[in-house]
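pinned: reference chain
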Amino acid sequence: MARVMAIDYGKKRTGLAVTDPLQLIASGLTTVPTHELIPYLKKYFAAEEVEAIIIGEPKNLDGNATHATPLVEECVRILRKNFPQVPVKKVDERFTSKIAFQSMIDSGLKKKDRQNKGLVDEISATIILQEYLQNKI
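pinned: its structure tokens
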């Protein structure tokens, strides 16, 4: 089987997470500067088989679009253009950053480490992927 990748897209940084080849476990992969996302993915996809891309869709509490929604829509368009063979699925990402931050506290990370926004983005991508895997079953 191929992996599934999750993207927590941001204007400056983008968090990435992937499953194992059996699609049982979601793990944080890395955080990349957003302007380097497509070159990074091209290199990664050349080395690993990816079955689908899951991207977090930002929404307000009421379910309406946020200021970041158009950025994600543009990213989806670029992903589909560059990787037409890989389906791109949008999933609700409400609360993932807050859950990621809380998981950092719960795991005992020091305050300095919790201020690493790249780590929050990577953990957010992992949470998006875990939720996708749970709902897929």
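why pinned: The chain has five helices and five strands. Residues 22 and 119 are 25 Å apart (CA to CA).
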